[in-house]
Each structure stands twice: as structure tokens, then as C-alpha cells.
Structure prediction request, 204 residues.
Amino acid sequence: MPVLALVGHSGSGKTLLAEQVTAAAVARGLRVAYVKHAPHGFEPGRPGSNSERVREAGADPVVVIGPNGRVELTGGGEDPLAQLLGGLRGDVVLLEGFSASPWPKVRVTAPGQEPREVADPVLLEVVRHGPRCTDQDVQAVLDLLHEHRFARGTDLASVTADGQEVPLRGFANQVVASTLRGLTASLRGVDDPDRLRVEVERHR
Prediction:
């Protein structure tokens, strides 16, 4: 399941691109899960909010993550909280924000803005001219999602707690695997290994 983060300054058009990509992907029969990072807080259920716009474009489930671990989840026929904990069910996951994350990114810039500095990798640059993103830009994002869906298999992560395995699926698996790869990539002597093993033991 590919994960792609739409990143950029406030007002650059991230939500607009998320709306257009979601609508186009849903029209092609794909299920889109959408996760928005709202570091300055949010008002749950506010009509016309960014997350509501993307939900109306067809995203399901929709997750908003605010400061201090505050989370808003909306979904269709399934419990969205269970989805978040067990792994988001969707053909693709669109993130909005998460500029410092290790996930692949599309950087969105509005005219007159300097591109935002974000963590690698940035796979596509989109400069929004006018009230909507161009059909070519939307198609370019869809092409990235398609390439990632059928690329070499994604990393598989496993977690055990006091000898008991904690099941990871979908987005939860991606979170753990991508975070560990990102944290260890800069360590001396670590060169894109096929297998990582990390253990943490509590000292009392």
C-alpha cells in the first residue's frame, strides 16, 4: 500500500491537490485513506475544514492528528479507530503535512513562495498556478501512486512486547518500518540493509 505525503507551506495548495487526487483516484476505483497533520490544532467536525473537503472528495477513512496526540477519525462502514490501530484499509494513503517524515513526498508551492525545506525524498514538485492544480499535476501524482503500488514489496515490520507479537498491518506496518529505516539510514556502517533488528529493554 503506497504512502505519499503532500507537503508545503500553509496556503500552497496541499489540501486542494489532496482533494483533486482523491476524487480522481476514487473515480478509478481506488480507496483512499487520508491522514492530515494539524500541528496548530483543529476544530472537530467543522464544516468546510480541510479534512472535510477531502472526505467529501471520497477519502475513507479520514484521520486528523493534532497536538498532544489529539486525533479525529471519520470513516464509513468500519470503526475508524480500529482501522488506525490495526492498519488503515485503503489502496493508497495520502498524507498532508509530515514534512520531517521519511515517507516519499510531493512538494506543493504557490506562486511567489519559496519551496518549503522538507526531509527527503521529494519525488515530485508541483507549483500551483490559479485556483486549481492542473490535470497534468494530478495525473503525475496518480502515476507515482501507481508506480509504488506495483513496485517491489514494501518492508515488513514486526514488534514483540515481552515475548508477545503485536500485529501490524497496512499503515501501522508502514509507520514502524519507514521510521526505523529513516532513523538508522544515517548511522555509520548501515548501508540499506535487508533486515533490521532493534530491541528496547526497560531499565528499572
In short: The radius of gyration is 17 Å.
